[in-house]
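testing teh design pipeline on a random one, pls ignore if ur not involved
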């Protein structure tokens, strides 16, 4: 092989690696954003059955996140689990003040997860926070 062929091969390999890494990050962030939007949907339920269905959807999305990020994100989000239950209860009761407090606590927990992780996992949590921001846009 000539020196030029080796150089082209190395550059192509590095480019492919960067492309795949970037795509994984975008996918992680998009998946996280879906979870954040699902949390916003939980805020808008008006009965316990719908709340339980929405929590089940969020939990399924979190299972998908492990496949995408390679990390069990439930470990970082355990503090959010209790808040999701509280949010479901307060939303079903129509208690707007408590639902806003629940969302604020979830957001603080996400900020902590973002600061303690890196790479695709961090991008995932940033996506969750971005999806959660849609709660405040409405």
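output:
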């Amino acid at each position: 092989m000539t020196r030029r062929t080796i150089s082209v091969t190395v550059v192509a390999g590095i480019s492919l690696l960067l492309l795949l890494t970037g795509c994984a990050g975008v996918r992680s962030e998009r998946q996280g954003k879906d979870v954040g939007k699902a949390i916003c949907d939980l805020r808008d339920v008006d009965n316990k059955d719908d709340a339980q269905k929405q929590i089940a959807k969020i939990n399924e999305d979190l299972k998908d996140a492990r496949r995408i990020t390679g990390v069990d994100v439930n470990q970082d989000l355990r503090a959010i689990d209790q808040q999701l239950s509280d949010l479901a209860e307060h939303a079903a009761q129509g208690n707007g003040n408590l639902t806003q407090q629940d969302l604020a606590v979830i957001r603080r927990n996400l900020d902590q997860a973002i600061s303690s992780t890196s790479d695709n996992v961090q991008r995932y949590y940033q996506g969750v926070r971005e999806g959660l921001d849609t709660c405040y846009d409405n």
